[in-house]
Amino acid sequence: MTRTRIAPCYSPDFLETERPSPLSDNKIEQMIQDVLSGKLDRDISDRVYADFKKEMYQWLMKSQTNTITGLNKFERVDIVNGCTQFIDAQYMQGQPQVISGDYRYHDRLGNVGTVPGSLEQGVPLVIAMPFPSMGAVHNQMEAILDEAQDKGISVHVDGAWLTCCRGINFDLSHPSIKSVAISLSKGLGLGWNRIGLRWTRQIDPDSVTIMNDFNMNLRAPAMIGLHFIRNLSPDYLWNTHGDNYYKVCHDFVLSPTRSIYLALKNGQPVGVSPLLRYLENESG
Q1: Is the domain of 167 the same as that of 245?
Q2: Residues 209, 276: one domain?
Q3: Quick check: is 198 in a domain?
Q4: Which of 58, 100, 112, 233 has the most CB atoms at less than 10 Å from its CB?
């Protein structure tokens, strides 16, 4: 697996402009090595699925820096192989619409983004919350949800960035939101072990529900996910690297965002993970 790059010196030359990388750190990398050495719960029974669903939800609710409400309004919870599987399940039903500046995966699939106020009647919308190019909730999110409700658009919220953010206060009970997914990839350095949960308002069979109903999900990602949430708090990255994050923003004249590894330079997103890793190792 690829570790987060460590800048060799403290210089703005190591700001990431093309593809900002999620932050891991020395502790997370040691935990990865522990997992590879077999130092985790050896239970490989079907119980691991139920445990992961229960414990990840409880873990999310323990955050002292984010307040997410409304998940209890959704009827069903399923395990997903990260938020990308959640997105793929939408594309399997027909290409959804997206807002410009969202996850670049949509661009790679040839899906040209639209803008708030121009949503197409009745076509499902996938939108990241927090929004990747902003590192925060989209600044027109409430208007987007209201527009979706007026136009009969089902909204599917990609919460991939939630676990690496702080100061996110969001109510997911808006009636236009039909499903939500949250993964551990960004918040716990688990891009190599994609695992998360999807909440759906209505129970409609699809590839995700079938995999869950027949216990077809791989057990290893759930086991590893459990190991990480049992040993790291939901606010771990911010509690550990928050001061250095604001130092990087101050020193290189960047605008901070809600995301631990993203800042804005002249309004454009840049990644700061290599510099955070440099400061971590310098202070150690």
Answers
A1: no
A2: no
A3: yes
A4: 233
| Distance separating alpha carbons of residues 279 and 161, to the nearest angstrom | 23
Q: Could you tell me the residue range of the domain that residue 270 belongs to?
A: 12-35+235-283
3-class secondary structure for the chain? CCCCCCCCCCCHHHCECCCCCCCCCHHHHHHHHHHHCCCCCCCCCCHHHHHHHHHHHHHHHCCCCCEEECHHHCCEEEEECHHHHHHHHHHCCCCCECECCCCHHHHHCCCCCECCCCCCCCCCEEEECCECCCCECCCCHHHHHHHHHHCCCCEEEECCCHHHECCCEEECCCCCEEEEEEECCCCCCCCCCCCEEEEECCCCCCHHHHHHHCCCCCHHHHHHHHHHHHHCCCCHHHHHHHHHHHHHHHHCCCEECCECCEEEECCEEEECHHHHHHHHHHHC
pLDDT per position as a tens digit, 70-116: 999 999 999 999 999 999 999 999 999 999 999 999 999 999 999 99
Q: What is the pLDDT of residues 126-135, one digit of tens each?
A: 999 999 999 9
201 and 64 belong to one structural domain:
yes
0.85 surpassed by pTM: yes
Q: Are residues 186 and 104 in the same domain?
A: yes
Q: What is the CATH number of the domain that holds 118?
A: 3.40.640.10
Say which amino acid occupies 224: I
